[in-house]
Amino acid sequence: MKFTFKKSERLSSKKVIDRLFDRKGSEKINSVFLYPFRVSYILDDASLTSVIKSTDVDVDIITESSTENTPTINTAILISVSKRYFKHAVDRNLIKRRTREAYRLNKHLLMEKPSSQIPAYIAFVYIAKTIEDYAKIEKSMKAIFKKMV
Q: Is 77 exposed, middle or buried (0-12, 13-18, 19+ CB in 10 A)?
């Protein structure tokens, strides 16, 4: 498995993002809370695919395939850092960069699960009020992947 993070792995569809953060239809949305992240994810994207295909919105989804006879996996992520606690864009970008790196190096833990348990869309919301070091972020990322269904 390649340790890459391509542009197609980034979640950019407004409809999917709205669905991830919608609390009214939360029966399909799962959440995991582990400091410094609150993670929302959707396992089955069949209902979202029908909603998205009815509009002209293009969804960026990664197709991760490896040479080790593993199934094709589709997943897209979003990383959010609050402007309220981190006024400078440099700080927000540092946190997002560390989070992306932790995801990129540890996504194989998520991909080892059965295909029915791999989320189609994941939103990482950074909730800490201070900038955590990379080791803390990576440790939390690994624990989150183990907690997900």
A: buried
> Which backbone phi and psi does 40 adopt, to 5 degrees?
-115, 140
Distance separating alpha carbons of residues 54 and 127, to the nearest angstrom = 34
Angle at which helices 89-111 and 134-147 cross, to 10°: 40
Distance CA(55)–CA(72), nearest Å, equals: 25
Rounded CA-CA distance 112/90 in Å is 34
Per-residue pLDDT tens for 109-135? 988 888 888 899 999 999 999 999 999
The encoded tokens of residue 39 equal: 């993670």
Count CB atoms within 10 A of the CB of residue 18: 10
Q: What whole-number distance in Å separates Cα of residue 37 and Cα of residue 140?
A: 8
Q: Check: pTM over 0.70? Answer yes or no.
A: yes
Locate 74 and state its tokens.
């589709």
